[in-house]
Structure formats: structure tokens, C-alpha cells
Amino acid sequence: MAEAEPTAAIEDLAQIRESVRALCGKFPGEYWRALDRERAYPTEFVTALTKAGFLAALIPEEYGGSGLSMTAAAAIMEEIQASGCNGAACHAQMYTMGTLLRHGSQAQKARWLPAIAAGELRLQAFGVTEPTSGSDTLNLRTTAVREGDHYIINGQKIWTSRAEHSDLLLLIARTTPRESAKTRTDGLSVFLVDMRLAQGTGITINPIRTMMNHPTTELFFDDLRVPAENLIGEEGQGFRYILSGMNAERILIAAECIGDAKWFIRKATDYAKERIVFGRPIGQNQGVQFPIARAYAQMRAGELMVHSAASLYEAGRECGAEANMAKLLAAEASWEAADMCLQTHGGFGFAEEFDIERKFRETRLYQTAPISTNLILSYLAEHVLGLPRSY
Ligand SMILES: Cc1cc2nc3c(=O)[nH]c(=O)nc-3n(C[C@H](O)[C@H](O)[C@H](O)COP(=O)(O)OP(=O)(O)OC[C@H]3O[C@@H](n4cnc5c(N)ncnc54)[C@H](O)[C@@H]3O)c2cc1C
User: Separation of 134 CA from ligand 1 center, angstroms?
Assistant: First the structure.
């Protein structure tokens, strides 16, 4: 399948893609199906990606990472999904550290980043969403109150993915009551919580079983003591710090959706060529061809926006609109491709052994997380088109 790549470093990207494909080839459909049935974590897969250094792609070389560009990181995530694997088990290890990298002190970076790059410390968990406030992040209720050289944390998070498979948690909590904060966006702070020390002494983790194999949880904080030295950046500025990290998250997850769409399109195309009904391949019928062709066009459009957002990001330019549009278009493309692939396979699409129903369930998530489609549309309406704020 033809791919549009930015002109820079085409050879390196080709090599990175090839290496990811080779690694993923060791984790075929049977591996994922067995885990899916049990809702079990793909430990071997995550270990292999970590050892190969792929999850440390965005960590600068001075901290032991590979110092690759966002374009290369996106290519890694795309290839994982296009190979039929599921990067959601570990994608946060790639981008969550960005908040620490951009806003942490020299001492914090020297303390944490080399161990994260080496895979000795897993920074896989990012606690933003709460059960009462949902998409309205500025209304979150978890509090962090300074007491001497600690902050005392109380509250609840929901949908904190990978918390059971992470050593560290990047947590956003309110340090100044909303009514006393200078602006709407002030008063939230970001902490790096060492969950190895905290479990049983302030954090309770409850897994949530979902429609796909995704290790997500709810967290309860009950007088959790976090050393003040684990505050990232300035107290009260945390919302700005996480917003800057969200562009990276959106670009990488959009790249995953492009990978999913490529997987579905390839599966559907192969099947449409070989399945004979009424004495001819089903792919000879335009009623079967056109949805595949449309899914391909939608995927390519989303892919261009992912590349555009990644290029702006790595040039240090503003990319909020592009990162959001990449996520919107790519998530829609992967979902359209999933539905098309299921339909192309007729009844066989519903059988576990074809992997389609599994990938179908997995890719549906990206209409909702890490930001739902409506919230992206609101962002574009307000911030790009200048329409009145709707909420
Ligand atoms: C499997 C899974 C993993 C996740 N992992 C993480 C994680 O690791 N860390 C984390 O912090 N969060 C995580 N999330 C949470 C995810 O980011 C949220 O579910 C998502 O942002 C939507 O928030 P909500 O579920 O509270 O929906 P709500 O905010 O309750 O919204 C419900 C629906 O209403 C719509 N809606 C709400 N307000 C408006 C409005 N003003 N205009 C138009 N439509 C509106 C939304 O678009 C949505 O469709 C995860 C979620 C899932 C399901």
C-alpha cells in the first residue's frame, strides 16, 4: 500500500518501520486472541518493545533515549497497529514523559528519565479523567494540599489505564480551590507519583473490565503523601503542562488509528480477492469494492494530517488544531475501515479467529478517548473558526 511520508529521513523511517514489523511478526493473532479472552496484559510484547528501545523513541539521547522525531515515533505506533498488534498496552510510555521532559527541573529529569528510557521504570499511567467532571477537566475535584515537605492527595480518578502495570503515575490535582484561582486554568498542579511506594498507603486501584482488552482502572486517593519534590514545574500551572503533552498524545494515537485502518483495508482487500460467491470474487462487485476504496481514501487523508501535525510538532510550532484534526480524521478513518472490513467478511468477520471483531472493538475506543469527537469539534469551532464557546 502506498504511503505518504515527509521527505526528511525517508531511509531511517523505512528501517524503523521494518524493525517494528519484524518484532510484531513474533506476536501473531493467536497471541492477542488468547490475551483477549482472559483480558490479560501483553507483558512479553511490551517487554520486547521496551528492550528494542521503541518506547524510548522520544526521550533525548542525553537521557538514554533514541531522540527520534515525532514523525518516527508516529511511524512506530502506526506499524504496531498495522501489524495487528495493540500498542494501547504501552503507548503512554512514549509520550507521558513529555510533561517531565518539558516542564520538570534538571534534578527531576536526571532522576527519572534515564530509568524510564531504559525501561527500568514504567511511566504508563496518566490520571486526568474523574467520574464527576468527565471531559470538563477544569472542574476536577481531586485535591493536593501542601503540608510541610509533602502534598496530601485526596479524591478519585477513573479510566486511569495501565495503572497496574506502571511504576509511576502522572497525576493532575487541584492545589488552589477553583473560586480562589486567578483564572479558569490556574490552580491545577501536576505530580509524578511513585505508585510502588503508594499502594496500600494511600492509593487503591480497581480494574474496570471493558469491551476490549484494555487494562484500565479507577483510582482512589486517601491521604496519599507525595513528596513536594515530585511536583512538576510551578504549582498551579499544571493544566498548561498537560495541554502541551496532549498534542503528542493525539498525534501518536492518530498514527495508531492509521495503522488500524491499514490493517482493516489490507484484510478486506485480500479477502475480497479470494472469496468466491456466485462464481466470482466478491471484490469484483462494485458494491464490495467501493467501501474498500472509500476507506482507503479516508485513511490517506487522515495520514496526511498526522504527518502535517507531526512536522509542526517537531518544528516546535503551534499544532493544536492539526493534532486534534489528525486524531478526529484518523479515528473516523479507522472506524469506517473496521466496519467496512467486518461487512466485507460476511459472517466470517464475526468469528474470533479472523481477528477482525477484536480489532473492531479495539479501534472503537478512539472515538471517545483520549478526547471524544465532540470535544475536538468544539475545539475547532471555537479556537479555529472563532465561533462562540458552547460550554
Ligand atoms: C478504555 C479507556 C481508557 C482511558 N484511558 C484514560 C487514561 O489513561 N487517563 C485518563 O485520564 N482518561 C482516560 N480515559 C478517559 C477518556 O479520556 C474519557 O472517557 C473521555 O475524555 C470522555 O470523557 P467521559 O467519559 O467523562 O465522557 P463525558 O465527558 O461524560 O461525555 C459523554 C459524552 O458527551 C459528550 N459531551 C460532553 N460534553 C459535551 C459538550 N459540551 N458538547 C458536546 N458533547 C459533549 C462527549 O463527547 C461524550 O460523547 C479512558 C477512557 C476509556 C474508555
Answer: 6
Alpha-carbon span 26 to 28, nearest angstrom: 6
pLDDT at 101: 96
Using DSSP, state whether 196 is helix, strand or coil. helix
Q: What is the pLDDT, as a whole number, of residue 240?
A: 95
Instruction: Identify whether the C-beta of residue 344 lies closer than 8 Å to the C-beta of residue 272.
Output: yes
What confidence tens digit (pLDDT) does each residue in 367-385 have? 999 999 999 999 999 999 9
Largest CA distance in the chain: 79
Q: How far apart are alpha carbons 252 and 307 in whole angstroms?
A: 10
C-alpha 267 – ligand 1 centre gap (Å):
30
Give the predicted TM-score (pTM) of the model.
0.96
Amino acid 199: pLDDT: 76
Question: CB of 278 closer than 6 A to ligand 1?
Answer: no
| 82's grid cell | 498495522
pLDDT of amino acid 320: 96
Q: Is 129 in the pocket of ligand 1 (CB under 6 A)?
A: yes
Helices (H), 118-237: 195-198
Q: Which are the contacts of 283, defined by CB distance < 8 A and separation ≥ 6?
A: 269, 272, 273, 275, 289, 292
CA distances from 335 to 219, 250, 284, 296, 300 (A): 30, 16, 24, 12, 14
Are the beta carbons of 325 and 294 closer than 8 angstroms? no
Q: Residue ranges of the chain with pLDDT lower than 70? A: 1-11
CA distances 156 to 77, 130, 224, 230, 321, Å, are 30, 6, 11, 19, 30
Whether omega before 370 lies within 30 degrees of 0, making that bond cis, reads yes
Residues 6+ apart with CB under 8 A from 17: 75, 79
d(CA 162, CA 88): 9
